[in-house]
Amino acid sequence: MLVGHYEKNICKINGSYYLFYLFYRHNINCYKLVRKRLVKLMFSSKTYNDRREVLAKNLNNGKILLMGNSQVPMNYPSNWLRFRQDSNFLYYCGLDYPDLNLVIDTSSGESTLFGNDLTIQDIVWEGERTSIANMAEVSGIQSVLPSNQLSSFLLGSNETIHYLPLYRQDQQVFLESILNNNKIESSKSLIINVISQRSIKTEDELSEIESAIEVTMDMHKLAMRQTSDGILEQTIAGKIEGYALQNGRELAYPVIFTTRGEILHNHNHNNIMCSGQLALNDSGAESPMHYASDITRTFPVSGRFTDLQKEIYNIVYNMQEAAFDYCKPGNSYRQAHLTASKIAVEGLINMGIMKGNADDAVKEGAHALFFPHSLGHMLGLDVHDMEGLGEDLVGYNEESNRSDQFGLAYLRLAKELVEGFVLTVEPGIYFIPHLINQWKAENKSSAFINYDSLNKFVDFGGIRIEDNVVITSDGYRILGPHIPRTINEIEDVMA
């Protein structure tokens, strides 16, 4: 009889922590190590200690509560969705396990981890995991306490309790239970300080993001090679997700793969692809430590762009190139967006789709009929990094207020860029029939839009090109390996 089992431990290599699996196979006469796997799990304990120390020093009063996530049922209690740890909890302690909470005392700088070791019943059903004490050790946390002591620990000293905005109902219920239903609001000062820290990516973080992009590159090449006439979109979406899972990664967000690219966040994969259509693939993997990638490519189902598709594609390509040039410290991302918008208008004027003065068209917002979303957003542990803390607090500051103009109002990032920011650059042009019909009926921006020219674009869809960049001391760097982006590169992959 052949049976198998594994043991799981955490080990330290060159200052970082790894999850170490030992897989055994044995029979009655034989017991043999057959395979081992080493997966990077955490940064060094010093990294997390330093992050917590900075946070405690900057707040300088009260206790900081950072809540980890719990398992969430999908359709009944024992059928769980995939566990994803809270990103702020990951940033400050790196522990990727459910039902943990962290308290930082700003006066002493001491951190306390709250959690419970697994019972024998837990181990029977879910397998073993490292102890709470070991979790604290690898994260550099000074003390541990059981979960049932969290409430008294927080409420016993009458100190200010700082916590971050809640984005899950189970978090709200849990917080009310431990605070005895006291109405305490999230801490603005904590939010601002967390954003300040998380916005600047270290070299270790950049390496994680680039490792995610490496897998994402292969996901996109696979999609290009597998796409052809008569195939259901779901088939390619499944291959994309399957490739990530095969390589030990989770998706950073649900796959957007569609021939209806004009629907900006289209998660419907029910269309059969046909020659002459464009396929838009917006997908990204996470690194083992949950840093996100976010890449979009648009390519022809047939493997060859039509002349009309080439014209629109090259406009979007030029929009991205112009936006890249604005990616440097001190430049506002709002201006990068407006520059890309002007390039779009100029290109569409040359095609007879728009008319008039390009600057005036952008000022009026006429370009938003074709480019209604923002140029990009911050990227890190979240694909829209830190937006759970408040989109305006992440993407804007005192010098950059959100516009109420259609299109411009959707800018997720408008403020000045700083060295260490990681962001997406993702311009697009879309032909959205419902939006076109509405604007035409209202005669909106008719001085800049040739509505009669749009009849041939009813079924065109949309084109988006997206890459991830880090702001450097004197400009930007595109992260990760090169992913086919030009028309010739894409057609070569699909040949």
Walk me through the topology.
Blueprint: E1 3-13, E2 16-26, E3 31-42, H1 45-59, E4 63-67, E5 73-76, E6 79-80, H2 87-93, E7 101-105, E8 111-114, H3 120-126, H4 132-139, E9 143-145, H5 150-155, E10 161-163, H6 169-178, H7 188-199, H8 203-226, H9 233-246, E11 256-258, E12 278-283, E13 295-300, H10 307-325, H11 333-350, H12 358-364, H13 391-395, E14 422-425, E15 428-430, H14 433-441, E16 462-464, E17 467-471, E18 476-478, H15 487-494
Parallel strand pairs: 4-10, 8-9
Antiparallel strand pairs: 1-2, 2-3, 4-7, 5-6, 7-8, 11-12, 12-13, 14-17, 15-16, 17-18
Helix pairs in contact: 1-7, 8-9, 10-11, 11-12
Describe this protein's structure.
The protein is an alpha+beta fold. The chain has helices at 45-59, 87-93, 120-126, 132-139, 150-155, 169-178, 188-199, 203-226, 233-246, 307-325, 333-350, 358-364, 391-395, 433-441, 487-494, and strands at residues 3-13, 16-26, 31-42, 63-67, 73-76, 79-80, 101-105, 111-114, 143-145, 161-163, 256-258, 278-283, 295-300, 422-425, 428-430, 462-464, 467-471, 476-478. Strand 17 (467-471) and strand 18 (476-478) form a beta hairpin. Residues 1-8 and 20-39 have low confidence and may be disordered.
